[in-house]
Amino acid sequence: MLLISPESVEEALDCVKAAEHLDIVDVKKPDEGSLGANFPWVIREIRDAVPAEKPVSATVGDVPYKPGTVAQAALGAAVSGATYIKVGLYGCTTPEQAVDVMRGVVRAVKDYRPDALVVASGYADAHRIGCVSPLALPDIAHRSGSDAAMLDTAIKDGSRLFDHVPPDVCAEFVRLAHEAGLLAALAGSVKAADLAALTHIGTDIVGVRGAVCEGGDRNAGRIQPQLVAAFRAEMDRHAREHAAAVAAAS
Ligand SMILES: O=C[C@H](O)COP(=O)(O)O
């Protein structure tokens, strides 16, 4: 699945123009961090603008180790209409802290909306910020009852997912997530050139912003529907080639 992250209602409307090419519209506020949380009314307006059959995701923030605060914020995202709730475990230095936070989120969200999906997100560049390491995420997600384990990059300075977690380690991340019955989501300045590897390792959700913004600039550029369509075409091409290779080998 392709997840695209607009930061405003205007950008979400550009996503709507490319709705057939994407699977999830992910509301965030990049100027508040990699998984910066947007205002509840922005989530609501975007939910109202996006076709009903397209799920809307919302990031709850690059969160501190404050389980109660984060659970309440996650409920806010769900009440505002998001059915994927993404939490960036920025302030969690141990897996136990991360499980604590995610258990609160899962309970808060699922008591309100049992079919909502909770995404526990860590950071590929965790070593730069001192939070839980990337390969701990599948177990954190599993132990907390989350539905997906995700990696993004915390510091958006041009470095990318594979600069910090090479494809073979991402493959292990995906394997661990699948073994635990979770969806595996990967992001972090992902470019079309990364799609062959991401497809090959069985990534369920690829998250992008910069690659589909004007000039490849996630901050100054705005999401362009034609770039979303082109990115999707590349994803589909790799999926077809991978399926053909698997069929030929069996
Ligand atoms: O969840 C996905 C992120 O928005 C990725 O953003 P990026 O591709 O600019 O790193």
TrEMBL record:
Q: What does this protein do?
A: Catalyzes the formation of 4-(hydroxymethyl)-2-furancarboxaldehyde phosphate (4-HFC-P) from two molecules of glyceraldehyde-3-P (GA-3-P).
- Per the UniProt record, the source organism is Streptomyces cuspidosporus
A Pfam family it matches:
4HFCP_synth
Q: Does the keyword Cytoplasm apply?
A: no
Q: What is this protein called?
A: (5-formylfuran-3-yl)methyl phosphate synthase
Q: Tell me where on the tree of life, at the top rank, the source sits.
A: Bacteria
Catalyzes what? 2 D-glyceraldehyde 3-phosphate = 4-(hydroxymethyl)-2-furancarboxaldehyde phosphate + phosphate + 2 H2O
Give the top-level enzyme category.
Answer: lyase
The EC number of this protein is 4.2.3.153
Please provide the record's keywords in A-Z order.
Lyase, Schiff base
